Amino acid sequence: MIYEGKSLAVSLLDDGFAELVFNAQGSVNKFDRQTVNELDEATAALSQRDDVKGLIVHSAKSAFIVGADITEFTAMFSLSKAEINTWVAKTSQVFDRFEDLPFPTIAAVNGFALGGGCEMALACDMRVADTTAAIGLPEVKLGLMPGFGGTVRLPRLIGADNALEWMTTGKDRKADKAMAEGAVDAVVAPEKLVEAALSMVKDAAAETFNWQARRAQKKAPLTLSKNEGMMSFSTAAAMVAAMAGKHYPAPHLMVETVKNAASMDREGALKLENEGFTTLAKTDAAQAQIGIFLADQLVKSKGKKMAKASTKEQQLTAVLGAGIMGGGIAYQSAVKGTPVVMKDINREALDLGLKEAAKILSKGIQKGKVDPAQMATTLNAITPTLEYSTLKEADLVIEAVVENPKVKGSVLKEVEQTVSEDAIICSNTSTISIDKLAANLDKPGRFCGMHFFNPVHRMPLVEIIRGKDTTDDTVNAVVAATLKMGKTPIVVNDCPGFLVNRVLFPYFAGFSKLVLDGADFAQVDKVMEKVFGWPMGPAYLLDVVGMDTANHASGVMAEGFPERMSKLTNDPVTLMYNDKRYGQKNGKGFYEYGTDKRGRPTKQAADRAYELINAQAADTAEFDNDDVIARLMIPMANETIRCLEEGIVGSAAEADMALLYGIGFPPFRGGVFRWIETMGVDKFVELADKYAHLGPLYEVTEGTRQMAADGKSYFA
Question: Is the pTM here over 0.70, yes or no?
Answer without folding.
Answer: yes
